[in-house]
Amino acid sequence: MEEVRVAVDGLERLGLTEYEARCFVALTRLPHGTAKEIGKVADIPRSRVYETMDRLRERGLVELQEGEPRTFQSVSVNTAVRILRKKYESHFETVEETLRQMEPVYKENQQAVWAINDYEQVTERVLDLVADATDEILLITFDDILLDGELVDALAAADERGVAIHVGTDDETVRERIADTEIDALVFTSGLVEWFGVTNDTPRIGRVLMVDRGPVLMSALHDENLPGVPNETAAWSDGIDHGFATFAESVLTYELRENATDVGDSTVSE
What we know:
By secondary structure, the protein is of the alpha+beta class. The protein has 2 domains: 2-99, Winged helix-like DNA-binding domain superfamily/Winged helix DNA-binding domain (Arc Repressor Mutant, subunit A); 114-259, Endonuclease Chain A (Endonuclease, Chain A), CATH 3.30.870.10. It is 47% helix and 21% strand. It is built from 10 helices and 10 strands. It has helices at residues 2-13, 18-28, 35-42, 46-58, 77-102, 119-132, 149-160, 172-179, 191-196, 243-259, and strands at residues 33-34, 62-65, 71-74, 114-116, 136-141, 164-168, 185-188, 204-211, 216-226, 229-237. Strands 4-10-9-8-5-6-7 form a 7-stranded mixed beta sheet, sandwiched between helices. Strands 1-3-2 form a 3-stranded antiparallel beta sheet.
């Protein structure tokens, strides 16, 4: 059955062995079962069922009723999901704590420009930069598909932290999306923004981000490889000590000074 295969594969990804996953799925399909019954449903040797059940009991996923023969019962699906989620959350906490202990307190900004060749990776970098903002965010974008829910939520969180947010665009859908939120953002257009957005040829500029007059990211949109999935690449620099970032920071700061000077004004500018 397709559902069985999907469930087994999912449990294996969560750390169960193949036999553990197959036995647990088999038990969820039975009110309870002996080793013989479980082995038949799970299609594994009976001799391996007992040791597999012992491991599942240690995980808290299976209960045992002593008798002759011994009978096993899986915990409820809700309980199993809660146990597995808690275990993986603890793994994430351990990994995060360990990595933070190893990370230097201060990472020296490098004079480098980093290339990103995948839309999801570009989005993750954008979200990271927005999350690190403490003073000001300038986002220029020309396609509403690049202003998705995750980015809107990140901008809203930055707004709650008191970060000034400026959005440059010539796209009416982008303007409406910002206007429909409670984000205190100044949305503007300018000759440069209109010039950036004038072409539909590819590659074309996708989004430009500057955070705290420092880190800069610029992306390009290419022809889609998959329908509805942006084909985006980007370059970014984590400081203004590199030619690319120095130039971008100068141009974008000029845009802010000339077109988005009223930081406290949340009204969409015409």
